[in-house]
Amino acid sequence: MIPADALTRLKSARSIAVLTGAGVSAESGVATFRDPDGIWARFSPTELASMDGFMANPQRVLDWYAHRRAVVDAVEPNAGHTALVALERWITQRDGTFTLITQNVDRLHQRAGSRNVLEVHGNLVEDRCSVCEEIHKGEQQLDAAGLPVCTTCGGRLRPNVVWFGEDLPRDVWDASERAARDADVFMSIGTSSVVWPAAGLAHTARSRGAAIIEVNPTSTDLTPDVTWHIPAPSGTALPLIVAALEAA
Ligand code: BV8
Ligand code: ZN
User: Fold this and answer.
1) Which of 84, 120, 149, 190 has CA 20 to 30 A from 155's CA?
2) Measuring from atom 5 of ligand 1, which residue has the nearest CA?
3) Annotated catalytic, 67?
4) Ligand 1 touching residue 234 (CB < 6 A)
5) CA of 42: how far to CAs of 33, 58, 145, 218, 221, in Å?
6) pLDDT digits (tens, 9 = 90+) for 118-135
7) Which atom of ligand 1 is nearest to 38's Cα?
């Protein structure tokens, strides 16, 4: 299932960059966005993951994120998340570098033990004040309409995620681009590669000579440009990759 030359390339890599998407959390029981039974299948991104949607109906958006938080709190990281922790350990023990870039906001990578995680689309755990940008966790001060507001400035709180039309966090994005530029191997795992600019990272790595490994049961917008496409779930393929590298 894992191409031998992909393993050879990984064994000689000095730096590995990984981009994950919702597919990595699917085997934990967290719905993806664009699979037939995915989140967007039931909701439209503009209504829920955009400032316009939030301003139009803040309670609906806050309820949606509260639902997703409850889903994530009730699940565990899966074998794919754990294999990425082992891969990070494997290459850092050989004085190589490993950067995990994720579009996911569920923090399952961190709960699995990944350390250097770049969250390009933010996270579900925190709220951010839409006025002073202060980060809030858990505490709730409600306004007359029953909506959570900032305890510092009274501004409306929103999930600390990146919505459509919003810029990605500058420092996180810059670090992600650097990792893609410096990578010998770039792994695109569990993402449909349709959301930009994150989808551009693999192309940045490729333009600098990196080999691209895609782990996804289906083909994606990126598949025509990858070096190897491994048509398997991440919870199956990643442990096999790590076992082969550790056995070498
Ligand atoms: C921005 C919020 C500057 C948090 C999300 C260039 C070209 C075209 C469009 C644009 C462009 N530049 C900007 C845009 C617009 C837009 C965009 O990309 N639109 C697309 C949809 C056309 N991008 C933006 O707005 C970005 N901002 O560019 O800022 C700017 C500023 C002002 C004005 C203009 C530009 C912001 C993008 C971030 C949006 N926020 N989420 C949340 O609620 O979660 S996006 C959302 O999609 C999630 O973050 C998600 O992570 C992300 C990507 O989805 P995937 O993770 O790939 O999930 P998906 O379901 O699609 O795919 C899952 C895959 O897993 C599938 O392929 C499936 O086969 C596979 N799979 C399933 N099971 C498994 C598996 N794989 C492995 N194992 C399994 N078991
Ligand atoms: Zn504030």
Assistant:
1) 120
2) 163
3) no
4) yes
5) 9, 18, 27, 21, 22
6) 999 999 999 999 999 999
7) 60
Give the residue from 135, 168, 156, 197 showing the smallest Cα distance to 54. 156
pLDDT in tens, 1-49: 899 999 999 999 999 999 999 999 999 999 887 778 777 777 787 778 9
CB of 216 sitting under 6 A from ligand 1: yes
Nearest residue (by CA) to ligand 1, atom 53, is 195
Task: Return d(Cα 105, Cα 64) in angstroms, integer.
Answer: 14
d(CA 100, CA 190): 13
Residue whose CB lies within 8 A of the most ligand 1 atoms, among 25, 107, 195, for a mutation test: 195
Closest protein CA for atom 37 of ligand 1: 164
Handedness of CA 21, 25, 26, 31 (dihedral sign): negative
Considering the entire predicted model, what is its pTM? 0.95
Runs of H (alpha helix) within 93-230: 108-112, 170-182, 201-207
Catalytic residue of the set 67, 81, 109, 121? 121
Rounded distance, CA 209 to CA 154, Å?
Answer: 49
